[in-house]
## 1
Amino acid sequence: MLLYKTVVGINKQLNKIITIPFPELEMGANCITKAGELMASKGAQKVLIVTDAMIHSLGLTTALCDSLTAQGIEFVIYDEVKPNPTIANIAVGADVYKEQQCNAIIAIGGGSPIDCAKAIGAKIVRDKPVRRLAGKLKVRKKLPPFMAIPTTAGTGSEATVAAVVSDPSAREKFAIVDPAILPDLALIDPTLMVGLPKPITAATGMDALTHAIESFIGTYHTPLTDKYSTQATEKIFKYLTTAFEDGNDLEAREQMAIASYEAGCAFTRAYVGYVHAFAHQLGGMYNIPHGLANAILLPEVLKLLKPYCEKRLQLLAEVIGLDTAEAFIQAVGDLNKKLAIPTSFPELNAGEIPLITQRALAEAHGTYPVPGYLTQQQGEALLRRFLKG
Ligand SMILES: [Fe+2]
């Protein structure tokens, strides 16, 4: 543990030196109509639009395309991004960008298209296999003009310096972390979120809550990240069930979109923790959606971590009008219930629990500023609670 603590301590000092910028923010109902003007101001002439087939078929790209056309900006749509974007998605996207001689990128969608676009941008400026961009500060070169337009309120990817990529051949996920991949512009339009299905509203909202909590209880938190974490936590407890029950409630959608952005601002500076470490491994091995994996894991991981961060959890409890760490953890579990989040992973293979745990602990230790350290045995016991039946 001493080694992990030393590495985390060194990273903490490095974090103080590396300045993480904020994207230029455009926010509000129907602000998508300003996308063309904003991209023109960045010199965009031909844009690669990175999205997925569902977003495209739902017509969520239409207003964007109209706005670009109105400014005389050409575009080509790459809509083959899969949930948990793969190395292949990124390679194809980068090829399309080059073949079509684009000079700017817009990502529109959930975390997958935004992360995919970040990695495409990285591959364009650093022409090497995506795997070799894994880790911290491997890009270090300005990306082409880049706008992110989230259509879910959860990942906060529009505000972060990380892109998570899947390597299906290794059944693993890895991250590219570099301030260079932060979008220049984040355009947050809640009208794009009104049609989001309930399970996605629930899972992505709980992803945002996980960002807010993990960044708050970890040891890299600062007054700035605390402000974002607590604001996001308060909004999520206030508005997520409304957004879930009535997807057309524009106020709830907007507040959740802001919460997602705020939680993104917090965790890109103060990192995440064990919930994400296990969720990434479960996503890599079984393709379990990221937000759903986080939501299922979150209350159980908090119970395990409570001895190490009881004060911090109590502060979060106060943010939502409660008074103890236990009450806060209970409230997280209750929120899951209201959102019909399941309590197990049917895909989980008992025989793979030791490997998943090993990989999750390897991801967390020395990388994430976790409040306390879990052992392999504790990690395996945690996962066994999620076996079906
Ligand atoms: Fe996340």
Note: The beta strands are 24-27, 46-50, 74-78, 104-109, 135-136, 146-150, 162-167, 172-177, 185-188.
## 2
Amino acid sequence: MSAKPSITAWGLYERLMPAEIERIFAAHPTAYLPWGALEYHGKHAAIGLDGLKAHGLCMELAKVSGGLVLPPIYVAANTIKTAPGLEHKRHSLNFSEELLRELARQHFEQLADEKFQVVFTLCGHVGQPHYDIIKDEAQKFNAGQSTTHIIATSETDLISKDIVIVNHAALGEISFLMHTDPDCVDLSRLPADRVPTLEDDAVWGPDPRESSATKGAEYTQAFVASAQKLISETLTRLNSSE
Ligand SMILES: [Zn+2]
């Protein structure tokens, strides 16, 4: 990690009064927008996993990169509820792609209106086309102006595939959650005598029974290093092209 000042100014946007927001903003005009879902993640994990994970990761990132972390958005399209061939119909709130698109666009507009230079949008839910819609709105917004740059990404897109791969309620996501929100996971609710499956357990990816908070902390460290670099390169580019 690069040599940053030991105390980086950051905060939770909704909990701050204007003077504190302005103090942090003056040092770090970066907003973090964690984007989650309320989606069934098996019997072993909280349904808010995607937003809890994204919010927890944004907070850890803000501690080193500085800036203001917005509360997570829990509006998602293309949840497991709508996946063909699967019977996981309960415990997911599924919203339309039109609403998602509109919410993304208006958040980007409003955060640009607040003069943030970088809006780091972290998609905890990467169901498709949900994820592509948010990336598409970011791209369109960036093409239309040059004072605010929207980054739209996901934790697994910033981390080497050797460390963690895209998954649902499996080793990667569950380890992240054990690190950020340990009270939202219960590994004892996974089957003891067989490998969990997508059909029976809503698990897609490596066996979540191997998850741990230690692994989650390692994944988080890899995420923070990569995301920090991306944000600082983006700020440098914006400020040199003025
Ligand atoms: Zn998830």
Note: The chain has one domain: 29-240.
